[in-house]
Specification:
The structure is a single chain. By secondary structure, the protein is mostly helical. It has three helices and no strands. The protein has one domain. The N and C termini lie far apart (39 Å).
Length: 79
């Protein structure tokens, strides 16, 4: 296993520990590991998953970290 693989798994595990009621598939979408094709124009309905085959592991890690930072920001705003 590559270092990046372990980092992705650790980020998912930490997220699921904080959100145990979420299903695994929900976590993949919530962390933006899997994304819908039309993420740039959400007003246009397109509920097909984007093929992430060519996404580098480092790009996926950055997406997860960006999403986690956004979640933290939203939590701090509500407090």
């Amino acid at each position: 296993m590559k270092k990046e693989h372990q980092e992705i798994l650790d980020l998912i595990a930490t997220y699921l520990e904080k959100h145990p009621s979420q299903r695994f598939g929900q976590a993949l979408l919530n962390l933006r590991i899997n994304e819908f094709k039309n993420i740039q124009n959400p007003e246009k309905e397109n509920y097909q998953l984007r093929d992430i085959h060519n996404d580098a592991d480092s790009k996926i890690i950055k997406r997860i970290e960006k999403q986690l930072a956004w979640f933290d920001q939203q939590s701090n705003t509500k407090s």
